[in-house]
Amino acid sequence: MAIKYYRLSERMLISREEIDGLPSLSREEAEAFEGLACFAGRLEKGMSRRAFSVSDASLLELENEGIGLLKTGEEASVEADDIILRKIREGKLMYVNTSYPNWREACSARLPKSWRINVVGMGDVGGMLLTGLRLLGGDDVESIGIYDRDESKMQRWHLEAGQIYSQFDGKKYPPVRKLGEDELFDCDMIAFCVSVGVPPVGQAVKDVRMVQFEQNSKIIGEYGKMAYKTGFKGIFAVVSDPVDPLCKALYIASNKGDDGQLHYGGLAPEQIRGYGLGVMNARAVYYSMQNERLAGYKEHGRAFGPHGEGLVIANSISDYNDELSQELTQKAKHANIEVRNTGFKPYIAPALSSGALSLLSTIKGEWHYSSTYMGGVFIGAKNRLTDSGTELERLDLDDKLFERLTETYEHLKSII
């Protein structure tokens, strides 16, 4: 089937099928086109992303999505168009899934040069995340809005964060302002840090995060409906626990109509990102530096999966050792309990490693750890946000490691 080229907004659309209502481009015009191009494909909506970055040609032949997205793709079996291959090499090809009713919005979307970030929930995590953004975000963050239903918390953090300033270093510090509920989605990224039902220190709980899920899912569902009603086009960053199931709860709530049916007009899968894996990676780094047997993780290892049960730490991608990886996984997974045993809640490292640092890496287009959508499940892995969409790191994975990832994927599917 011949490849067809179209103009869509300021971008080029490439398709194997006729697209009605768009002006056509000649082969010569397509070859001369220097900007970002979109490839129109079709995958099952609800079980796939609306848009993503095409990092290799095999992604154009996907029939479905799942945990296999993390594996190095097979070489494309069909003859690829030279223009398509050039755009892939340049990092300028976005896949757009025409199964979604609003797929053209994805092809036309632009990432901001300077981000407006709104933080919702000014508790322990929200306050610490705000501190990190205020200290480190000056070059990339235009402003930080803060919101909490408790006015005193907002006022406290408006005062505290606004007084973080170094007089003579010339650094920029993003201005902080209090928000009303009607202003929450007037931003490029909303960071959701609301959390209820956190067990008190000293209470024996097997998995603190899942205790929070029932109540937090109801709250995030309200925000999902608000995001749909306001037509929010930015990134919804979920920082509250349990991160990955809450991402899915948010997606469903935003896309479910009053009749209980999914309309897929709310938040697109790629608009939702979960931020819990960054601290698990940081904890694995910490413990690997305490034990010579576990050394080398920082340079050669990877973290995958959720912030909690189902976490997968690989001691090394090139020289995977399952025994060492399982040991390091257990240490990282239970690090929060070790902190709680000191008599304090473990929120500082999560708010900075999973929160502020990972959010800033996201908006800078840097590789980082966060949860994105893969075949109906939000699951954490190394990725980056580019002008052409989210690019997942794809690796030649050890069979045993991939077996662990598959188990985690199935575990997350069973939650929601």
UniProtKB/TrEMBL annotation:
* A Gene Ontology molecular function term of the record: oxidoreductase activity, acting on the CH-OH group of donors, NAD or NADP as acceptor
Task: Extract the Gene3D superfamilies matched here.
Answer: NAD(P)-binding Rossmann-like Domain
Q: Which residues form a coiled coil?
A: none
User: Which InterPro entries does the protein's record reference?
Assistant: Lactate_DH/Glyco_Ohase_4_C, NAD(P)-bd_dom_sf
Know the name of this protein?
Malate/lactate dehydrogenase
From which source organism is this entry?
Peptoclostridium acidaminophilum DSM 3953
Which lineage is the organism of this entry classified under, starting from the top rank?
Answer: Bacteria, Bacillati, Bacillota, Clostridia, Peptostreptococcales
